Please model this.
Amino acid sequence: MVSSTSADVVIVGGGIVGVSTAYLLAKEGVSSVIVEKDSVGSHASGFAYGGLSRPRGTGPNVPVLAESWRLHERFGTELPEETGVNTEFRLRPSLSLAFADEEAAQLRASLDWRRHEEGPSVRWVDAKEVFEIEPRVNPEAIGGVYVEGGGDVEPYRLTLALVQAAEREGATVRHGTVTGLRVVGGRVRGVALEGGEIACETVVLAMGPWSAQAAEWLGVPVPVRPLKGQILRLQAPGDPFRCSLGYAGDYATTKPDGLLWTGTTEEEAGFDDRPTAAARDKIMASLLKMVPSLEDARLAQQTACLRPVSSDGQMLLGRAPGTEGAFVATAGGRQGIMLGPGMAKVVMELITRGSTDVEIEGLDPARFCS
Ligand SMILES: Cc1cc2nc3c(=O)[nH]c(=O)nc-3n(C[C@H](O)[C@H](O)[C@H](O)COP(=O)(O)OP(=O)(O)OC[C@H]3O[C@@H](n4cnc5c(N)ncnc54)[C@H](O)[C@@H]3O)c2cc1C
Model:
């Protein structure tokens, strides 16, 4: 049976970007319908590590990062109050380790631009101080970069809290798969679902790694693909880690659930999001390089999910080219939890005011149309 209904704004995708958009729109008095093909937070937004870092250096995503950091801090108190869901937002220092002179040189070189990070203290620590900070680190470590002022959050709880808070203020969630847009005279008039349509004049495409499907709907390239990543949650002996540890793109931290979360991988595996033994072994090897005494840690859970990444590595954020009323917000990549709220703010402002104060040059979805 074909059903029809209408909405002010339809948001396609119930990941961090979609639910943050619904929440911020609701705060401005704009109701929305989130259409989700599976369930809210059932993909990367529910299974990410949840590391949050402050904006640093230069690059097109820095203004969005800055906005996002402010929102994460706000959400850290606002959402638990509004929903009773503890999102486990916390400030947490991190220690990036070096084991070889070349790694130390690379980390030291990053100090210059990291010193400009808003707020946190960033410094080189020698081997002695590394072991004072976290005595279980591999004694072969020759030093590291210690950063205070970053943080983390439990991504599933954050996504859940955002959708619950949005629903309280008038947003609704509808289960379904969006199959296209109804565009009349270059303007969005509705969103087509399997078995129905929602009439609307505004649509936000927050479809994560599935965003490339929208290329056909919009008639423009949307070069976004999935980049698989995996995480282990371990029951580890001993006290919680005192900070988040990092080495060569991998990380480990004790989360408030008492488990040691560690990852990750970057795999070009299409839409296959099944955990693998090869990834488990790779992640364990990296963890043991950082903390050899964890050999006996017990695997509690292994998760795999898909990051949305674009062909040039930057987000697609703003108006969809050529289709009035359509907005694209995707490709947060390895920082999608961090960036999600800021991306949502940009979209909310474009919808409610027609412009945004956040600098988004370099992120325009139209950059792929030539
Ligand atoms: C292992 C791993 C660790 C990570 N760690 C971190 C971290 O520490 N910090 C950080 O900031 N980021 C991290 N990320 C990245 C982050 O998880 C993602 O960038 C982010 O969750 C993407 O959010 P999203 O809302 O864009 O997409 P998603 O969470 O994928 O949500 C998109 C949603 O859209 C739905 N959808 C798609 N197409 C349709 C359709 N046609 N109709 C209806 N619904 C549709 C999907 O079902 C999905 O639920 C990590 C990612 C991975 C894989």
Observations:
- The chain has three domains: 3-86+155-218+311-368, 93-149, 224-309.
- The first strand starts at residue 3 and ends at 6.
- DSSP finds nine helices and 21 strands in the chain.
